[in-house]
């Protein structure tokens, strides 16, 4: 089977779990554009735009979203639900990390960090170290972008 995992698994930003990271960033970018946004991620759109995955860059276009809502309301509803879920999830973990930092935690580990931008967009206290763990090619893409 081609979907089995092994010790030497790897993927880039446009395949496998890397593409999932782009999808999640696209949802954060979409939320950021809303007037009543629950979260703001100024890095998400940049990370999505450079990934070259196609479909997720497309949904950043508000004209596309309007056409999709007219053409297939069910698909539009799924995309909206996905965006809402990611916004709530992002808000929850942002608050968790802010509270942890306020309590004196100065080492943070983000497992399977993908294109998460908390290391850059949250206001960490002096002396805080944020460790991001993910596939090397995913982290390399994020660092270069």
TrEMBL record:
Among InterPro entries, the record links this protein to: Ppm1/Ppm2/Tcmp, SAM-dependent_MTases_sf, SAM_mthyl_Trfase_ML2640-like
Write out the GO MF terms. Answer: methyltransferase activity
Protein's recorded name: S-adenosyl-L-methionine-dependent methyltransferase
What SUPFAM superfamilies does UniProt report for this protein, alphabetically? S-adenosyl-L-methionine-dependent methyltransferases (SSF53335)
Q: Which UniProt keywords apply?
A: Methyltransferase, Transferase
Q: Which GO terms describe its biological process?
A: methylation
Record NCBIfam families? mthyl_TIGR00027
The text of the family note is: Belongs to the UPF0677 family.
